[in-house]
Amino acid sequence: MEAASHWETIRKSAPDGDAANLADYEKACADFDWRNAGAELTGLPGGGLNIAHEAVGRHVADGRGERLALRWLGKDASAQDFTYADLDRLSNRFAGVLRRHGVPAGARVFCLLGRVPALYLAALGTWKAGCVFSPLFSAFGPEPVRARMEIGEAAVLVTNEAFYRRKVMAWRDALPSLRLVLLAGGLSADAPPGITDLDAALAEAEDAFDIARTRPADVALIHFTSGTTGRPKGAVHVHQAVVAHHATGKLVLDLRPQEVFWCTADPGWVTGTSYGIIAPLTIGAAMIVDESEFEAERWYRILEEQRVTVWYTAPTAIRMMMKVGTEVVRKYDTSALRLMASVGEPLNPEAVVWGLEAFGKPFHDNWWQTETGGIMIANFPAMDIKPGSMGRPVPGVLAGIVRREGDVVTELSEPMAVGELALRPGWPSMFRGYLHEDERYRKCFAGGWYLTGDLAMRDADGYYWFVGRADDVIKSAGHLIGPFEVESALMEHPAVAEAGVIGVPDPVAGEAVKAFVALKRGFAPSEQLRRDILGQARKRLGRAVAPRDLDFRADLPRTRSGKIMRRLLKARELGLPEGDLSTLEGEPS
Ligand code: AMP
Predict the structure, then answer these.
(1) Ligand 1 atom 21 nearest Cα
(2) What tens-digit pLDDT sequence spans the chain (589 residues)?
(3) Among 431, 267, 197, 454, which Cα is nearest to 345's?
(4) Which residues make Cβ contacts (< 8 Å) with residue 245, sequence separation at least 6?
(5) Residue nearest to atom 10 of ligand 1 (CA)
(6) Distance (Å) from CA 368 to ligand 1 centroid
(7) CB 103 within 8 A of CB 131
(8) Cα 123 to chain center, whole Å?
(9) What does DSSP assign to residue 215?
(10) For residue 453, what is the enclosing H or E element?
(11) What's the pTM?
């Protein structure tokens, strides 16, 4: 292949580059050593490492407690400011609540909340208590919530009354590990039994807390992600990950103390935790958190009024802004912005360039995934951008394009060869396992590489270009969706005999979830049944995961071993070549 894109390279001017945390990419790579990357992090007084101490306690101890740490913008016009000292004190209280209820170190604290202050206190307080934080996306329905809390053997759930009633109450008794449910945001007069009022408990708790002496290799976080088969995977991350969050926050997002930083990702997903909580706080920046969903003018108003300097968002949101048009952006003063970055799905070159047109600066794409815990490949502020490319590896990260055949992995060094994107293990935020699935974890590694499951190419200048997923996982609006989880929910409908789920291209969300269903004997396809199956799936899975569209089929293509061939469903749906059908049931081999 010749060039990956006909788009013109965006050259970075020297003054911009000189001012950046990373001014010279080659030099930064040559000088970098993970052992020094955490030099600004102090560790716990007396030994140990705890994310919460690095995020808030350290700043307070160093006399920076009065700085703004979090400005929360409510759905209504309300706003609330938290200094570093406030976050430190209130998260101490949260940790105190856990301790008072006898929650032991290592216990898993799940959080099912929108972007409200209680979520941030819960995350920091959980780490302070030596417990493990696991955030869930608030748009999950009861099934995804239940599956993740079962796999994670949740001991504590932090949520609100409405979510508890809708998504948890019906099955709570079937999860014996769950010993404490903390409800934030007040309770109704007829609050359900067996819950604790978090606001009241926080009001009674003490400001001081003796932080747990966690070690770098102690588990801090479980982030759930999806694969092609089986249940969701709980990726395990340790306190040491904070070193990578801090370093990449500086090198890629160019964060500095007192920056006004807005990460639009929800903490229910890994970006919203690594860069929506940990990285900016360890650097001492002020974070903007908006409770609302996307709305273009609201977002521009936030950029203007809050004087946001660094903005980290996602391709789906950028495409929605593009639809609204450039003129709307120009009504607002976004001149405080000095860096815009994007992650989570392919960022089309048009979107990178639209940034220039609308905001006077390009969007900087970067790549990583739940398992890597932090940014791995990026367009750095001081580096030329090739629109459509994910950029180059973060200093300290060794990437390659490989072909895997069994346990044999061959590196493809020729420019623009398509292969699997692989990384040499060893960066601090690398996941340390999938909960209860050692074999699945082991299979991610071969020949000294971590294999990412993404197909990519590298050009002669060392820039990486995303090609696609190597598996059947769906990326919709930046959220990774496992087809198996959706198929299982569809199968629960009394009319459904079998189900296959794929991602189909969507101009805004990247991909949309589409289901194919074969009915049981005695049921006939109808619009009413279609709506009923979709409606039930949405109720069980929630809007983040449920299929948007559904087609009936007399039967679904299966391999001889009985697996539904999603690849073939997709090829037929999109009119693509059907490829190798030798394993298809009923086809000549
Ligand atoms: P998640 O684990 O949910 O963060 O999803 C990670 C996956 O999202 C990656 O393995 C890619 O398939 C996709 N992804 C993330 N960032 C990018 C990007 N900049 N370009 C293309 N795909 C991306």
Answers:
(1) 346
(2) 445 678 999 998 644 445 689 999 999 999 999 999 999 999 999 999 999 999 999 999 999 999 999 999 999 889 999 999 999 999 999 999 999 999 999 999 999 999 999 999 999 999 999 999 999 999 999 999 999 999 999 999 999 999 999 999 999 999 999 999 999 999 999 999 999 999 999 999 999 999 999 999 999 999 999 988 889 999 999 999 999 999 999 999 999 998 999 999 999 999 999 999 999 999 999 999 999 999 999 999 999 999 999 999 999 999 999 999 999 999 999 999 999 999 999 999 999 999 999 999 999 999 999 999 999 999 999 999 999 999 999 999 999 999 999 889 999 999 999 999 999 999 999 999 999 999 999 999 999 999 999 999 999 999 999 999 988 999 999 999 999 999 999 999 999 999 999 999 999 999 999 999 999 999 999 999 999 999 999 999 999 999 999 999 999 998 887 788 999 999 999 998 887 565 555 543 3
(3) 454
(4) 274, 275, 278, 279, 282, 373, 374, 429
(5) 369
(6) 6
(7) yes
(8) 15
(9) -
(10) strand 449-458
(11) 0.94
Q: Which atom of ligand 1 is nearest to the CA of 480?
A: 3
User: Which protein residues touch ligand 1 with a CB less than 6 Å away?
Assistant: 225, 270, 343-347, 365-367, 369-370, 390, 452, 454, 466, 469, 475, 480
Concatenate the DSSP letters of all residues of 26-46 into one string: HHHHHH--HHHHTTT----TT
Rg of the chain over all Cα atoms, to the nearest angstrom: 24
Ligand 1, from 313, 475, 485: best to mutate by most atoms within 8 Å of Cβ? 475
CATH architecture of 472-574: 2-Layer Sandwich (3.30)
Residue nearest to atom 9 of ligand 1 (CA): 369
**Amino acid letter, residue 161:** E
**Going by CA atoms, what residue is nearest to atom 15 of ligand 1?**
344
Distance 274 CA to ligand 1 centre (A): 15
CA of 292 to the centre of ligand 1 (A): 24
CA–CA dist 35, 38 (Å, integer):
7
Instruction: Provide the residue ranges of all domains of the chain, joining segments of one domain with +.
Output: 472-574
Angle at 366 (CA atoms; ends 365, 368), nearest 5 degrees: 150
Centre of ligand 1 to C-alpha 168, Å, is: 29
Distance 306 CA to ligand 1 centre (A): 29
Q: What's the CA gap between 490 and 587, in Å, rounded?
A: 27
For residue 341, report the distance from its CA to the centre of ligand 1, in Å: 14
Atom of ligand 1 nearest to the CA of 366: 19
Specify whether the CB–CB gap between 281 and 313 falls below 8 A: no
Task: Give whole-number Cα distances, 66 to 70, 82, 366, in Å.
Answer: 12, 9, 33
E-only strand ranges, 314-437:
339-343, 363-367, 377-378, 392-393, 399-405, 408-411, 419-423
At 313, list the tokens.
């968002």
In this structure, which residue's CA is closest to atom 13 in ligand 1? 345
Testing ligand 1's pocket by substitution, the residue of 148, 367, 420, 476 carrying the most ligand atoms inside 8 A of its CB is 367
CA distance 55 to 62: 12
> Taking a C-beta distance cutoff of 8 angstroms, is the pair 396, 388 a contact?
no
Q: Indicate the DSSP class of residue 391.
A: B
Give me ligand 1 centre to Cα 323, in Å. 23
